TrEMBL record:
Catalytic reaction equation(s): dTDP-beta-L-rhamnose + NADP(+) = dTDP-4-dehydro-beta-L-rhamnose + NADPH + H(+)
Domain of life: Bacteria
Pathway: Carbohydrate biosynthesis; dTDP-L-rhamnose biosynthesis
GO BP of this protein: dTDP-rhamnose biosynthetic process
Name under which the protein is recorded: dTDP-4-dehydrorhamnose reductase
Record keywords: NADP, Oxidoreductase
Details of cofactor binding: Binds 1 Mg(2+) ion per monomer.
Length: 729
């Protein structure tokens, strides 16, 4: 039986400088003020945690003024809970304000910080003085993303050597305190592929990726392919000093992401402009290899194999994270664990797999150069409080404590045809890789979706197809919510892992004359379905509306606010909520509002564009406030919450409160039409039978926020444009 790796965890803790601004992920994710997070980390079965004791945070203003209060409290708690610490001293940083990656005193300053830290915490045995030195040098001194914002090959090599010397000197000081201290040296590791005319660039990139580890191992001597290049930058004496006094890592820490393998192509016309770049001698597109190569690149398994074969030192996968939908996050982690276990079985030494971004991360979509998106980790902290996600049951299953969640099974997007976004390029590989190895097909329980004829049912099914989530989409003939026997027969026949109820009455004004049918569809049927699911321990997802509120709060409504519907449709949804809340079982109810989507012609935003295209003005209510919701964003987050086994009521919208008229103007302008054609009028002029709340805007106290409305409107416009062009043709 293959030896299992240890399970480590990692806290995204970057403190990096952009201009005069320092960004701090510890503050961004709220861990700065939540010592109780430590207990959560220990409870999921981690054996070690990469934890920040960062130079920039402890001595920000002067090396002689150290503030240990924050680290003292947290390290005491980690030690009390027997959670082994892998101490990080600089994480994608350039040191405090009084130094930088290219300053002469960087290495000695880091060594002094390491000495003080080791003396204060002599019981820590595992250390990463500098996280990803090669990557940090590239981003700071070659690409100018981070301080000192240089674009110089000499400064790039200087920044790398300063970090390597900082690591060597830091470990020397640490081992004076604790001779058994281990160096766990991390860096991003991928492979560069290229067209034939760019073979030399790819060859250089594939040599350079090892530079940090090679230097520490004393391998960069006069016969190393990088010696002459660095020596030409005036760094020969530095290279000789490192080679004469190396500091080989005890563990090679590999950080491999789906973006780590790259492909370089001289045929710029095949790719969008934003991926165009190049060297001083040749222009090329630089894209994710997984998006263009067939068969796909070597991935994590290839990176681990290469590192083992090059160094014959123990390896750890020190960052495993996929910023994607929940099931894709689960699949990536599960596959990384299986790879490590399998390679151990082949005689390699893969010491650990590290679950990265325990609390998520903020701004990596902009490479931390400006404000950006939040990506959840094992916990989602978007509400300000850590909310456990489906990652936790997966981690328990990896240690043999539970069955692996169904959502973690199946192929990830990186293994499916939809991974390709550029014209395919054949990768030289054995024929069996081109044909594809047969994958084990296992019967996986589907998600049952009620409501095949509705916008939401079709949208959930579409999201499942995109995410490789097996599903069954039912019509009334397959599952009749007004017939208890039909409900039970369908559940017993399909045996789903969860049920998403997207069926029901949607005609708000007609409900005023047909109260009974509306209540039957939206309340009685939904409650009967949830009851039958609860008896079978099947989680459910149901949808409610902003129309359960009266509209007189004067501010957006949150989940705990009292409901007071003002029309029959709202009453039907309120009764559904109350009835399901009284049932046993795992039931999730999402309140949302004002759907819009480019994939459905029967929604407000689509009607705006169709009217304006004909040259006619469009009238919209300017006295009703709503929070529009983009259906693809809604379905994606709803599925994540269902996979996380969340329950209770959640509000999901794109977060901006505005009138129907203002929403129409925003859509019109983004789609290239004159917003002056939108006529704001009182809603009474439309002759609606059902009363509407004046202000039914939704907000959330629970987190899981959708992207901003501006992003949703951009997506709507971008996806609608091809449809309009096709109609015009």
């Amino acid at each position: 039986m293959s030896k299992q790796p240890e399970l480590w965890g990692g806290l995204e803790c970057t403190v990096n400088r952009v201009g005069e601004r320092f960004g701090d992920q510890i503050h961004a994710t709220g861990h700065q003020h939540r010592v109780e997070d430590i207990g959560h980390f220990a409870a999921i079965g981690l054996q070690a945690i990469r934890y920040p004791l960062l130079w920039e945070r402890i001595s920000p203003d002067s090396p002689d003024r150290c503030d240990w209060s924050w680290t003292d409290e947290r390290l005491a708690r980690l030690r009390q809970l027997d959670l082994r610490v892998i101490a990080g001293l600089v994480h994608h940083g350039s040191g405090p304000r009084y130094t930088s990656l290219v300053d002469d005193d960087f290495a000695s300053g880091l060594a002094e910080h390491a000495r003080r830290t080791a003396e204060r915490y002599p019981w820590i045995s595992d250390w990463t003085p500098v996280n990803e030195p090669l990557t940090t040098a590239r981003f700071s001194a070659l690409y100018a993303h981070w301080y000192p914002h240089a674009r110089s090959e000499r400064l790039f090599w200087l920044a790398l050597l300063n970090q390597i010397d900082g690591t060597r000197l830091a470990m020397r000081e640490i081992r004076r305190v604790n001779p058994a201290a281990r160096l766990i040296q991390t860096d991003d590791l991928g492979r560069t592929y290229a067209t034939a005319s760019l073979r030399e660039q790819a060859r250089f990139d594939n040599i350079r990726r090892w530079a940090g580890w090679d230097l520490l191992c004393g391998m960069v001597t006069r016969d190393h392919p990088l010696w002459d290049r660095m020596a030409a930058c005036g760094l020969e004496d530095r290279l000789s000093a490192i080679a004469d006094d190396p500091c080989p890592p005890d563990v090679i820490g590999i950080n491999h992401y789906l973006t780590s393998d790259r492909f370089l192509d001289h045929r710029l016309q095949r790719y969008p402009h934003h991926v165009h770049g190049g060297s001083e001698v040749q222009l090329y597109a630089d894209v994710e290899a997984v998006r263009v190569l067939e068969p796909p690149p070597q991935g994590l398994e290839g990176a681990v194999r290469e590192a083992w074969e090059r160094y014959r030192l123990p390896v750890a996968v020190t960052e495993v994270h996929n910023g994607c939908t929940r099931e894709e996050q689960l699949r990536w982690v599960a596959q990384a664990w299986d790879i490590a276990t399998r390679l151990n079985g082949e005689g390699m030494s893969v010491e650990a797999v590290t679950i990265w971004s325990l609390l998520g991360s903020v701004g990596w979509n902009t490479l931390l150069t400006r404000p950006g998106h939040y990506e959840p980790g094992v916990w989602d902290v978007s509400s300000g409080r850590p909310r456990p996600t489906a990652m936790i049951p997966l981690l328990r299953s990896l240690r043999g404590k539970a069955e692996r969640p169904l959502a973690a099974t199946g192929t990830g997007w990186w293994q499916r045809p939809e991974r390709m976004v550029h014209p395919p390029v054949a990768r030289p590989a054995p024929m069996v890789q081109h044909i594809g190895l047969g994958r084990e097909v296992r019967a996986i329980k589907p998600l049952l979706i009620c409501g095949a004829t509705g916008t939401l049912g079709q949208a959930i099914a579409g999201a499942c197809r995109l995410r490789n989530i097996p599903y069954v989409l039912t019509r009334r003939a397959d599952l009749d919510l007004s017939d208890g026997r039909s409900i039970e027969a369908a559940l017993d026949r399909i045996q789903p892992w969860a049920v998403a109820n997207a069926a029901g009455w949607v005609r708000v004004d007609d409900a005023e004359d047909e109260e009974g049918p509306c209540l039957t569809a939206n309340a009685a049927g939904a409650i009967a379905l949830a009851r039958a699911c609860g008896e079978r321990r099947i989680p459910t997802l149901s949808f409610s509306s902003d129309l359960v509120f009266g509209g007189d709060k004067g501010a957006p409504y949150v989940e705990g606010d009292a409901i007071r519907p003002c029309n029959n449709y709202g009453i039907s949804k309120a009764r559904m909520e109350e009835g399901i809340a009284a049932l046993d079982g795992a039931h999730l109810i999402i309140r949302t509002a004002a759907f819009f989507s480019p994939h459905d012609q029967f929604n407000f935003a689509h009607a705006v564009i169709q009217t304006l295209r004909s040259g006619r003005p469009f009238a919209a209510a300017d006295d009703l406030v709503i929070t529009p919701t983009y259906v693809p964003h809604l379905t994606s987050t709803a599925l994540d919450l269902l996979i996380d086994r969340e329950t209770g009521i959640w509000h999901l919208s794109n977060g901006e409160a505005l009138s129907w008229a203002e929403f129409a103007r925003r859509v019109a302008q983004r789609c290239g039409h004159d917003p002056a054609l939108i006529q704001g009028v009182p809603h009474a002029g439309f002759g609606w039978k059902a009363a509407r709340p004046a202000n039914a805007a939704l907000a959330s106290d629970r987190g899981a926020h959708l992207p901003p409305l501006s992003c949703a409107i951009d997506h709507f416009a971008d996806h609608l444009a091809p449809q309009i062009a096709l109609q015009a043709a």
